[in-house]
Specification:
The protein has 456 residues and is α/β, with parallel strands linked by helices. It has two domains: 120 residues, Arc Repressor Mutant, subunit A, CATH 1.10.10; 291 residues, pyruvate-formate lyase- activating enzyme (Alpha-Beta Horseshoe). The chain is built from 16 helices and 20 strands. The protein is globular, with a radius of gyration of 22 Å.
C-alpha cells in the first residue's frame, strides 16, 4: 500500500468533518435509560456467541494528563483501589449470568491506568476473575500501562499472572510536548520496558502515539518516531488528539495557540504513516499499525478484522462483558453501560441493583447498519449478497437513499459500487468514517455532529 495515495489534499479538506469513531453502532451518544429488570441476562439470552471477552475498567491515575478524555480518578491514595476491588467483586457476585457465562478467551484491563494497581492488587483481581469465570488456559490477557510507574520487576509480576500483551502509553517523546500535556517520562525507560516485555515472551507489545499535541512539529515528531522504530514494537496505535475543552476540563490547561493547525496536523499524520509504513508496518484500519506477522495484519488480509470499544481486534466472535465504573458491555443485541462516577457505581451495587443502567437494545435496523458499518470500518468493503443473506432484505430497496448518497464518493474516486458489492479505494481509507456515516440512521439531523471530533 502506498501511503502517498491516502493524502489527496482536496478530498481530505472536503471530507474532514466531525464524525463518530464507530467503536459501536449506535454510538454511546444514543444510549438511554434501560427499562429491563435484568438487562444483562436478557442480552445473554438473545446472544448467539459461544465465548466471552472481559473488559475491566481501572479508573485510577497517579497524575492528570491534560490531553486525556478517559473516565478517570486522579489520586495518590492506593487504598482507593482496594475499595474498588471490593466493589468489582460485589458486581461480579451480583451478575445474573456469571455462573453460566460462556468461557472467557480474552481479558483486557483499561483505564485510567491499570498499572495504578500494585502486583498484590492485580493478584487479587486475577484470582477474582478466575474464581467466578471459566477462563480458558492460554486466554489473551492484555493491560494498558503508564510507564512512569512501572518497573521491569512489575512487568515480570504481570507476566507471572498470565498477562501476555501490554500496551504502553508513549504519546510523544519530546520534552516540550510532554511538559505541555503534563506527562514527562523517560524514553530510555520505555525502551527498557519494551525490551523486557519481549524477553518475557509477551506475544504483543503496543505503543500509543498521538499526533496534534501542543508544540508538536515535523522535526520533533520525526524524533519520536525514530525512538519508536528503535524499540520495534509489534504494534503502534496512532491517534488524533481531539481538543474538546468544553467536554474535558483538563484540556483547558492546553492553550489553543500551542496546537498545530489543521494543515500541520495532517502533515504530522502523514509523516507518521509514511515512516511506519516505510519501516515495514502495515496500516490496520484507520489508525493502527502492525508488523506483517502480527495477527491483526493477518486478520485484515483475510477479511476477519473486527472493531470494538478497545479498537481493532481479531476476536469479533466474542460477547464483551464490561466490569467496573463506566464500562460498556456489548452482548448480543445490546450495549449496556455501568454508571460513569464511582459514587453512582458504588450506590447501585450497595442497593443490589444491576450495575448496567444505561445503554440500548438494538432494533433489527440497528443490527443491519451495525454490520455494514463494521465491515466498512474493518475491511473497507461490503458484500451486498452477504448482507441480504444474513438479514433477509433486498439491499437496493432497503438502502435506496443511502446508495444515492454514496454516488458523491463514487464521483470522487473513493468508492466502487456494484449491485453485488461496495469497495473503498485505497485513497478512501482515511475517510472511511465519513463513508460509514452514510449508513448511520442517527445522524440524519446532524444535530450531534458537534459532539464528535474531526475525522482527520
Amino acid at each position: 500500500m502506498s501511503v502517498q495515495s491516502l493524502f489527496n489534499e482536496p478530498l481530505l479538506n472536503k471530507y474532514n468533518i466531525n464524525g463518530p469513531r464507530y467503536t459501536s453502532y449506535p454510538t454511546a451518544l444514543e444510549f438511554g435509560p434501560l427499562t429491563q429488570k435484568l438487562p444483562l441476562k436478557d442480552a445473554f439470552v438473545q446472544s448467539q456467541q459461544q465465548a466471552l471477552s472481559l473488559y475491566i475498567h481501572i479508573p485510577f491515575c497517579h497524575q492528570l494528563c491534560y490531553y486525556c478524555g478517559c473516565n478517570k480518578v486522579v489520586t495518590r491514595h492506593q487504598d482507593k483501589a482496594d475499595r474498588y476491588l471490593d466493589y468489582l467483586e460485589k458486581e461480579i457476585r451480583q451478575l445474573p449470568v456469571c455462573a453460566k457465562a460462556p468461557p472467557v478467551k480474552q481479558i483486557h484491563l483499561g483505564g485510567g491506568s491499570p498499572s495504578f494497581l500494585t502486583l498484590a492488587q492485580h493478584t487479587r483481581l486475577i484470582a477474582l476473575l478466575t474464581t467466578h469465570f471459566s477462563v480458558e488456559k492460554g486466554a489473551q490477557k492484555s493491560i494498558e500501562i503508564d510507564p512512569r510507574g512501572v518497573t521491569t520487576e512489575y512487568l515480570s509480576g504481570l507476566s507471572k499472572l498470565g498477562f501476555n500483551r501490554v500496551s504502553i502509553g508513549v504519546q510523544d517523546t519530546t520534552e516540550k510536548v510532554q511538559e505541555a500535556i503534563n506527562r514527562v517520562q523517560d524514553t530510555s525507560h520505555i525502551a527498557t520496558l519494551v525490551k523486557h516485555a519481549k524477553q518475557l515472551g509477551m506475544t504483543s507489545v503496543n505503543l500509543d502515539l498521538i499526533y496534534g499535541l501542543p508544540h508538536q512539529t515535523l522535526s520533533s515528531f520525526t524524533e519520536t518516531l525514530s525512538h519508536v522504530l528503535t524499540m520495534r514494537p509489534q504494534r503502534v496505535s496512532l491517534f488524533s488528539y481531539a481538543h474538546l475543552p468544553a467536554r474535558f476540563a483538563a484540556q483547558r490547561k492546553i492553550d489553543n495557540a500551542w496546537l498545530p493547525q489543521a494543515q500541520s496536523k495532517t502533515a504530522l499524520m502523514k509523516l507518521a504513516m509514511e515512516t511506519l509504513n516505510g519501516a515495514g508496518y502495515e496500516l490496520i484500519g484507520m489508525d493502527h499499525f502492525a508488523l506483517p506477522d502480527d495477527e491483526l495484519a493477518k486478520a485484515q488480509r483475510s477479511g476477519t478484522l473486527h472493531r470494538n470499544f478497545q479498537g481493532y481486534t481479531t476476536m469479533g466472535d466474542l460477547d464483551l462483558l464490561g466490569l467496573g465504573v463506566s464500562s460498556i458491555s456489548a452482548v448480543g443485541p445490546a450495549y449496556l453501560q455501568n454508571p460513569k462516577t464511582l459514587n453512582d457505581y458504588y450506590s447501585k451495587l450497595d442497593e443490589g441493583k444491576p450495575s448496567q443502567h444505561h445503554g440500548c437494545f438494538l432494533s433489527s435496523d440497528d443490527q443491519i447498519r451495525r454490520y455494514i458499518i463494521q465491515q466498512l470500518m474493518c475491511n473497507l468493503a461490503l458484500s451486498v449478497n452477504d448482507v441480504e443473506n444474513r438479514f433477509a432484505i433486498n439491499f437496493a430497496n432497503y438502502f435506496k437513499e443511502e446508495l444515492t448518497e454514496l454516488q458523491a464518493f463514487v464521483d470522487d474516486g473513493l468508492l466502487t459500487v456494484t449491485p453485488h458489492a461496495i469497495f473503498a479505494t485505497s485513497s478512501a481509507r482515511l475517510l472511511i468514517r465519513v463513508i460509514a456515516m452514510t449508513f448511520d440512521a442517527y445522524l440524519a439531523s446532524k444535530k450531534n455532529l458537534h459532539r464528535y471530533s474531526r475525522v482527520i
